UniProtKB/TrEMBL annotation:
<dbReference type="GO" id="GO:0005737">
    <property type="term" value="C:cytoplasm"/>
</dbReference>
<keyword id="KW-0963">Cytoplasm</keyword>
<feature type="binding site" description="in other chain">
    <location>
        <position position="130"/>
    </location>
    <ligand>
        <name>IMP</name>
    </ligand>
</feature>
<feature type="active site" description="Proton acceptor">
    <location>
        <position position="14"/>
    </location>
</feature>
<feature type="binding site" description="in other chain">
    <location>
        <begin position="39"/>
        <end position="42"/>
    </location>
    <ligand>
        <name>IMP</name>
    </ligand>
</feature>
<comment type="pathway">
    <text>Purine metabolism; AMP biosynthesis via de novo pathway; AMP from IMP: step 1/2.</text>
</comment>
<dbReference type="InterPro" id="IPR042109">
    <property type="entry name" value="Adenylosuccinate_synth_dom1"/>
</dbReference>
<dbReference type="InterPro" id="IPR033128">
    <property type="entry name" value="Adenylosuccin_syn_Lys_AS"/>
</dbReference>
<dbReference type="GO" id="GO:0000287">
    <property type="term" value="F:magnesium ion binding"/>
</dbReference>
<feature type="binding site" description="in other chain">
    <location>
        <position position="225"/>
    </location>
    <ligand>
        <name>IMP</name>
    </ligand>
</feature>
<dbReference type="InterPro" id="IPR018220">
    <property type="entry name" value="Adenylosuccin_syn_GTP-bd"/>
</dbReference>
<feature type="active site" description="Proton donor">
    <location>
        <position position="42"/>
    </location>
</feature>
<dbReference type="Pfam" id="PF00709">
    <property type="entry name" value="Adenylsucc_synt"/>
</dbReference>
<feature type="binding site">
    <location>
        <position position="144"/>
    </location>
    <ligand>
        <name>IMP</name>
    </ligand>
</feature>
<dbReference type="InterPro" id="IPR001114">
    <property type="entry name" value="Adenylosuccinate_synthetase"/>
</dbReference>
<feature type="binding site" description="in other chain">
    <location>
        <begin position="14"/>
        <end position="17"/>
    </location>
    <ligand>
        <name>IMP</name>
    </ligand>
</feature>
<comment type="subunit">
    <text>Homodimer.</text>
</comment>
Length: 329
């Protein structure tokens, strides 16, 4: 059995995970994203060249690594194609190195429209989302009306499902949020134009990872954001819409057993940083007040804690009283 690692942040994201991921991908056979979407951002420097990835796993830059987007990730076809093009323009054969789960929920234009409309309607009580449709896409998944990558194999059925779900969401946009409806035909045409590219990368991720386990391959699970943004264990309601903790690995990759995970690499900053405006636990405010950092540019280097998996029975999170403090976010 190989050494399998989960890399995650123990705060609100921006802990410097990309630096550790950059190092570990030298040894990895597979790198797996298991939650989140293109609301994440990992900065890598390989051979002196800087790359920022939002959706594609960081292993894509290594020719010996297969990158996998698991079912726990909400996938924006537009964002994926943009990221793929940027890498392919640099000579990186993305389609040879990237695989997708057919169960990935799709983020489409109406999810983005809903996300923006809701944040605008909340005004001063806004959650602080990235406005990229992440929350509404996860909402559709749980409500069992979401469209998934696997639906693209039957284009006629996909079109029917899309029409039905867009009628529902456009009703909300127009009648409740007083926003413009999203054009059905445009959304359909945009997705159909790249449907074959997406389906060509589909694989049974659960089976692939089970085979990797049996061979003893080194698999790295790449977490996005941070523990305190976990939908269940974070600073609710100022959280993201997925499980950012290590528990999300099993559900987000299709591997029912997580006992074969050997190490967690947990990252934290001595000074807190956060990409979005949000409330923080009041007991941490003194520590946070000295940090004006955003998105890894000027923050101090992260502290890295690597422990055997058996030592981390659960992940503790801040359970302090929340006080709004958008100026410090």
């Amino acid at each position: 059995m190989g050494n399998n690692v989960v890399v995650l942040g123990t705060q609100w994201g921006d802990e410097g995970k990309g630096k550790i991921v950059d190092l570990l991908t030298e040894r990895a056979k597979y790198v797996v994203r298991y939650q989140g979407g293109h609301n994440a951002g990992h900065t890598l420097v390989i051979n002196g060249e800087k790359t920022v990835l939002h959706l594609i796993p960081s292993g894509i830059l290594r020719e010996n690594v297969t990158s996998i987007i698991g079912n726990g990730v909400v996938l924006s076809p537009a964002a994926l194609m943009k990221e793929m093009k940027g890498l392919e323009d640099r000579g990186i054969p993305v389609r040879e190195r990237l695989l997708l789960s057919e169960a990935c929920p799709l983020i489409l234009d109406y999810h983005v429209a809903l996300d923006v409309a809701r944040e605008k309607a909340r005004g001063a009580k806004a959650i602080g989302t990235t406005g990229r449709g992440i929350g509404p896409a996860y909402e559709d998944k749980v409500a069992r009306r979401g469209l998934r990558v696997g639906d693209l194999f039957d284009k006629a059925t996909f079109a029917d499902k899309l029409k039905e779900v867009m009628e529902y969401h456009n009703f909300q946009l127009v009648n409740f949020y007083k926003a413009e409806a999203v054009d059905y035909q445009k959304v359909l045409d945009d997705v159909m134009a790249i449907a074959d590219i997406l389906t060509s990368m589909v694989v049974d991720v659960s089976d692939l990872l089970d085979q990797a386990r049996q061979r003893g391959d080194f698999v790295m699970f790449e977490g996005a954001q941070g523990t305190l943004l976990d939908i269940d264990h974070g600073t609710y309601p100022y959280v993201t819409s997925s499980n950012t903790t290590a528990g999300g690995v099993a559900t987000g990759s299709g591997r029912a057993r997580v006992m074969w995970i050997t190490y967690w690499a947990s990252l934290k900053r001595t000074q807190l940083a956060s990409v979005q405006v949000r409330s923080r636990p009041s007991c941490l405010m003194k520590l946070a007040s000295s940090s004006a950092s955003r998105v890894t540019n000027s923050a101090p280097p992260p502290a890295v804690v690597v422990v055997p998996a058996g030592w981390m029975r659960s992940q503790s999170v801040a359970r302090c009283r929340l006080t709004p403090c958008p100026a410090s976010a």
